[in-house]
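Can anyone check this?
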Amino acid sequence: MKTVYHPLKIAPVANAEIFFNFQDFLPHTVTPSHQHEWGQVQFISAGTMELYAKGQRLVSPSQFAIWVPAGVEHQSYTRRGIHYCAMNIIAAKTDVLPLEPCLLAISEITQAIINDLRLRQITLASTDADKRLVAVLVDELIKSPVMPEFLPSSQDKLLQPMLAALDSEPANSNSIKQWAALLHTSERTLARRCQEILGMSFTELRQRHKFIYSLQLLREGLSIKDVALMLGYNQTSPFIVMFKKYAQSSPEQYRRQLGHD
């Protein structure tokens, strides 16, 4: 059953230039289509969020943030439970940020500040120390590089069935040769279509789906060995290499961040 989250429609404090709100989203939480008069940086911890805006599907694991400019219609969906933080910035202060919705790669400093604000439930910086923290956070976001879609989507008739299958079954073990046979095309044609339309190889696409799924499994408390086996790895070492590639940390470090021993 889906849970519906209704976001803020007005700022909780009049004339606030930057304010935050924190939520713990249950699995299958839907945020209906809406817009804000402020820009919004959305941070996700211990999971992923799918946000739809201007024809884009932005899938954000925890090392990225989603930027949505003021006045942009958007909606979101979380398949699994997440810790959520929205950093809301009045439109007049957002000219230093991108003009379009996008993913931003966030620094360790950014993540540390957001974690601290979440822990203390600071929705509005009122002390000089917290105001300095928020100023640093803004500086870090200005420097954050814009990232391409982490999990690209497409309505291409050839690719769509394969993408839908990977969305619903991230550990799907079909090779590109097997997919080509199922889709009644050649392996070369399917590989070329992935590269041209999705901007990545089939192998890269499948690894990214496995990475997203591994975040959920680790959060559920599964051991690294069990996660590796569920994703189709015979040993933990190749899983750890894959995880480090995207998370910039090991699965064990990620488990510690979640509070798992």
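Reply from J.R.: I decoded it. The chain has two domains: 3-147, 160-257.
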